[in-house]
Amino acid sequence: VVVGSGSLALAVRSLVRTHAGRLLVVVSDARVARLYGRRFAESLARGGARSRLLTFPAGERRKTRETKSRLEDRLVREGAGRDTIVVALGGGVTGDLAGFLAATWHRGVPVVQIPTSLLAMVDAALGGKTAVDLPGGKNAVGAFHQPESVWADVRCLRTLPDRDYRAGLAEVVKTAAALDATLFGLLEARAAALRRRDERLLERIVARCLAIKGRVVAADERDSGPRAILNFGHTVAHALEGASGFRLRHGEAVAIGLVLEARVARARGAFPERDLGRLERLLVALGLPTSLPRAIAAGDVVRLARRDKKTRGGVVRYAVPARIGRPRTGPDPTEPLDVERDLAPLLA
Ligand SMILES: NC(=O)c1ccc[n+]([C@@H]2O[C@H](COP(=O)([O-])OP(=O)(O)OC[C@H]3O[C@@H](n4cnc5c(N)ncnc54)[C@H](O)[C@@H]3O)[C@@H](O)[C@H]2O)c1
User: Fold this and answer.
1) N or C: which end of the chain has fewer CB within 10 A?
2) Contacts of range 267-272, beta carbons closer than 8 Å, 24 or more positions apart
């Protein structure tokens, strides 16, 4: 895992050196292809690599089986075989889609993750979860497929639209709130600099989030225990995303999900009132939403939350830390969530 300004150029050099003669398939959405993908693929070619750029239309609504099939058809036309390397250059949608493409192409070829959105840098690019959405289920079909390497160039964040940048900050807050009180304090102290995209601060924060995620994933790669703490906010967030018809960004849904899940836990005496206040204030300071937008029907959120795929034996579960930066002890950080009794009243 390499984090730093200018690491995109290092990634090119490393790929050319380590994969001479193999086909490097760079996958990007159309927007990232325009900004970085074409130049990236050209640099690979200039370095002597065989490379192709495959693109798809940007947005969560394209993280589908249909897009994956189209990319597979392209791989056939490009003569890609078992020695192909997939390079996911883009946000979390690209990482999940291209990662899943690599996981199943010829029963699995290597994937290199080059995240260009903040959300992908601090979360999606590392950990090996890859997937596409179905109409009724976020990330419903996918595979665990660990990246061969991850390259996070914070300079790419200069071109990220403000709304997407802020959405990425939600996953930073989640990581800190779940696992690192010191990081949470840093975010509180430097919220204004973070809004300004101070690059030195971003390098530090991205590196810290990746280190935390790497540690958690190494301890529980298949998400059967402690890794579930990284789902803080996500049980509610996935329902919110669905209920908004994917108009809400994933990170925006996570911000609201963090607050609602922490409020459920607080009502049960399982999360301190003071920490709930700190969480809400930090999210607001970072320009993130903390309550249900008016355009989203509470009934849809409840219906989708009930169907959440983390449902085990008919029980929806959610994961909230014991307090800021401190996960609950024990092998399973999740608790049952009674959607009607615990969540529905908070949405009214
Ligand atoms: N696999 C995991 O562990 C994991 C973890 C968290 C989230 N996710 C997934 O990540 C996805 C959300 O990721 P996202 O928010 O990055 O969405 P995204 O990939 O759609 O990117 C958001 C937008 O930003 C644009 N963009 C990306 N980088 C840019 C740059 N440098 N400059 C300009 N524009 C840029 C994209 O074209 C897109 O329009 C969701 O599908 C979510 O499920 C996966």
Assistant:
1) C
2) 267/342, 268/342, 270/320, 270/322, 270/335, 271/320, 271/321, 271/322, 271/323, 272/323
